[in-house]
Specification:
By secondary structure, the protein is an alpha+beta fold. It contains 25 helices and 24 strands. It is elongated, with a radius of gyration of 34 Å.
Length: 811
């Protein structure tokens, strides 16, 4: 019986090639979109779950509020992990990662290569995280100074083989340049919130350990089985009182923690599950690029919507052919076929069609996966679709979708009454069906929301990238690693500054992008710093030329100058800092900060100038307080260029570099590129959303085309009579199109508040954002109506141009 159903279904598909092509195309595109997004969502949800103890690993996050500034950090103090392990039995182990600097220059042959995937780690790293060893003993590999653990890829890169235990790597810029390789591990999975190739011993970190007030270490706790992390967090206030507060009062005039909090300040620590970091952490500094759970759930919803719309189209198109298949149903019923067999026949046909569509969808997915990976910054593999975890779902998908999509047409077609059908009158119930109207409204509701969403995302990104951030980010070339030149750094800067096309040059690794260096210190306008007057402020070490090279505007006072010997104790602050100090004219006033070398001692600086506020972080944040100090920070050099031959100028700079630093890599970037990279996640979301919005509209139009075809069939007699009575083609086209345009208009009206609310909520993430203008919604409405009109008009005009004699004769 099943074979008979399949054979009949196959014949029907071949007999109606046009219908089959449209239906299979819509389903294939819908299924392919669903598979692509499913791969993306599954990958996003899988982060850090490869760790065998992932359910018990937590990172300590810090929240520091002082003087109106709020720091949300992924780091805490270096003694925190050891203290918690000592004082609380529910802590099984801990590990610290230290990534200050973020790069190392490692020697290969006669040249040095800049490596970014490097950290210093405690020897307990491999007791907490699951990082399997290929060679060596990872549990003891980092216990000694001058030791390192590397990945298999790093071993092949530098030695051409993986078994390199006992060999050495040489770095440049470290006090101890030689590190012994004590273990080689497998490459870290890509779905980890940090991905590192070199783990150096923590004993080689040049740091003043034991300070509870400095927060520079990512610290992970491994809690014992059965420990409730929310209950464990209740211990942090006691830790603050016992360890942190006593150190704080050595520097600040604090009375009690309660008084500290009453002044609007706060210090708090929280545990974040390692499995949540990739999707739910929006803190600084992260060890890798995180995603956003809201986007993941949004894409999951879009995937479901696209699949539902594809199923809706199948129902619409199948029902549109009801008149053509009505006689078939009537004859089969007269010959004794019961309703159950008819339902089985139509469901078999539906499942077969979905199976064909699935095969095509897999081919589309395979062909578009590389493009999707490029846009989404992923490395998804087609093999994941056929893994043991997903293969059962893939097998069941045609059955599930086929039954869901084919259920309504099956029961609708099998319910035809044979006497009415064989008399030549096909049922017309679906023509007035609320189901049909609801389906059209739903399809275009989704389309309008996506059109509005994509438009606002692109307008916001364009606003951010075109808005003046308060400095000149264009034509600013950054050369990294100049600190490795030593005394030749100044020689390099001066030599490049003399080149034609160079308008300014400055040393500093502190740049106005979120990926740059950061140093926060507590300041006050009073000689006694307490909970009322202290505030946290970023401190950047720069040279005399920094502000002019980056085009920053001094609005009060002056810039640093070698003509003033006292500028070594001077600072230039921004407008926000001046406001927090409560000074209308701060020039000449003293500000104070702690002397980290001497407890109970303060350092005094004189404000020599005020710089106009500029965005030195993402525009998601308000501009915080910032001050510049003179310093010898030569790890990067910025050059302001003005030339049409940029490639030639860079080549000339590279030649200067090679002459002074043979063997060192020449690495550069443009500041505007680094600036735009801060919004890379939103750019990816915009591109993905645009692609799926277009596909959603296309699939919805296929369904609308099917409904237009059905309506034309249902109203053949009416159209013939109207033409005989003198109706014009335009009036008949308007009559057939009107009903659909009303439904699309209803969808537009319903989509407006949803789209506005969703995008208003998304824009709240940005401190600097566009206003949602009514024109965006008007444009979305016009586009949607035009698309719907073009789709329906083709079939409507075709019906209106038909010969009325043939129409009435057929009736």
């Amino acid at each position: 019986m099943l074979f008979s159903y399949i054979k009949t279904s196959w014949r029907n598909l071949l007999k109606h090639k046009g219908f089959s092509f449209i239906n299979i195309t819509g389903l294939a595109i819908g299924l392919s979109c669903f598979l692509l997004i499913a791969l993306y969502v599954a990958d996003e949800l899988s982060y850090d779950r490869f760790n065998e103890k992932a359910d018990r690993i937590y990172r300590i996050n810090s929240d520091i509020t002082m003087g109106g500034t709020n720091l949300k950090l992924t780091t805490c103090s270096d003694p925190m992990g050891a203290t918690l392990l000592k004082d609380y039995p529910s802590v099984e182990n801990f590990v610290r990662l230290y990534a200050s600097g973020g790069t190392k220059f490692i020697k290969k042959g006669n040249a040095f290569i800049e490596e970014h995937r490097v950290v210093h780690a405690d020897s307990t790293l491999f007791d907490v995280f699951t990082l399997p060893a290929l060679y060596g003993n990872t549990h003891t590999a980092l216990q000694e100074p001058n030791s390192v653990v590397i990945t298999a890829t790093a071993a092949k890169k530098y030695f051409g083989t993986t078994n390199v235990v006992g060999r050495f790597i040489e770095t440049r810029g470290d006090q101890q340049p030689l590190y012994k390789i004590n273990a080689v591990i497998k490459d870290m999975p890509k779905n980890a919130h940090f991905n590192v190739d070199f783990f150096f011993s923590m004993d080689n970190v040049e740091y003043d350990f034991g300070n509870f007030l400095s927060h520079n270490f990512q610290t992970y706790l491994l809690l014992k089985p059965g420990t409730d992390p929310r209950v464990f967090e209740r211990n942090f206030p006691a830790v603050i009182q016992r360890y942190i507060f006593p150190q704080a009062i050595q520097f600040m005039q604090l009375s009690t923690m309660e008084e500290f909090k009453k002044s609007g300040n706060n210090l708090a620590y929280h545990l974040m599950p390692v499995k949540d970091i990739h999707l739910y952490s929006d803190r600084f500094p992260e060890l890798g690029v995180n995603s956003d759970a809201r986007y993941v759930y949004l894409f999951a919803a879009v995937a479901i919507f696209i699949l539902v719309i594809a199923c809706i189209n199948f129902m619409n198109l199948s029902t549109a052919r009801s008149a053509a298949r009505a006689k078939e149903v009537g004859i089969r019923k007269v010959l004794g076929t019961d309703k159950k067999s008819l339902v089985a026949q139509f469901l078999t046909e539906s499942v077969l069609l979905v199976m064909i569509a699935l095969v095509i969808a897999l081919l589309i997915t395979w062909g578009s996966l590389s493009f999707f990976n490029e846009v989404a910054a992923k490395s998804l593999q087609m093999s994941t679709v056929f893994s043991l975890n997903t293969l059962p779902f893939l097998i069941l998908l045609p059955l599930i979708v086929g039954i869901l999509a084919g259920s309504y047409p099956a029961f609708f077609l099998s319910a035809f009454k044979p006497i009415i059908v064989l008399k030549g009158s096909a049922p017309t119930g679906f023509r007035q069906s609320k189901i049909r109207s609801s389906l059209v409204v739903f399809q275009f509701f989704v389309a309008v929301v996506l059109i509005v969403g994509v438009t606002i995302i692109y307008k916001q990104l364009n606003y951010i990238q075109s808005r003046q951030p308060g400095f000149d980010k264009e034509q600013l070339l950054i050369i990294n690693g100049t600190g490795l030149l030593g005394s030749n750094a100044v020689v390099f800067k001066e030599a490049v500054a003399k080149l034609t096309g160079i308008k300014g040059a400055s040393f500093s690794s502190y740049l106005p992008v979120s990926s740059s260096h950061r140093s926060d210190n507590t300041f006050s306008g009073k000689a006694v710093i307490n909970e009322q007057n202290g505030f946290s402020m970023q401190t950047w070490k720069v040279d005399y030329d920094y502000l002019t090279t980056l085009g920053m505007e001094i609005i009060q006072g002056r810039n640093f100058s070698p003509d003033f010997g006292t500028d070594s104790s001077g600072v230039v602050i921004n407008e926000t800092a001046a406001k927090l100090l409560g000074l209308a004219n701060p020039v000449g006033k003293k500000i104070y900060t702690f002397d980290n070398q001497i407890p109970d001692s303060l350092l005094a600086y004189t404000v020599i100038g005020v710089v106009k506020n500029f965005n030195f972080e993402s525009m998601r944040q308000e501009i915080g307080p910032l001050c510049f100090q003179l310093g010898n920070n030569q790890s990067a050099t910025a050059f302001k260029i003005a030339t049409t031959d940029v490639a030639g100028l860079i080549k000339s700079i590279e030649n200067k570099w090679k002459a002074l630093a043979p063997g060192l890599p020449f690495n550069y970037q443009f500041l505007d590129e680094a600036f735009n990279n801060m919004y890379r996640a939103e750019q990816r979301v915009g591109k993905i959303a645009l692609a799926f919005a277009l596909l959603t509209i296309f699939i919805a139009c296929l369904g609308l085309f099917g409904l237009a075809t059905y309506m034309a069939e249902q109203r053949t007699r009416e159209i013939g009579i109207r033409k005989v009575l003198g109706a014009s083609v335009s009036s008949i086209t308007g009559m057939l199109s009107g009903d659909f345009l009303k439904l699309v208009s209803i969808a537009f009206v319903l989509a407006l508040p949803v789209a506005w609310l969703a995008m208003h909520q998304w824009l709240q993430e940005f401190a600097y954002r566009i206003n949602i203008h009514w024109g965006v919604f008007a444009m979305a409405g016009v586009i949607t109506l035009l698309i719907a009109l073009c789709t329906v008009s083709f079939q409507a005009i075709k019906a209106a141009l038909s010969n009325p004699v043939k129409s009435l004769r057929a009736e």
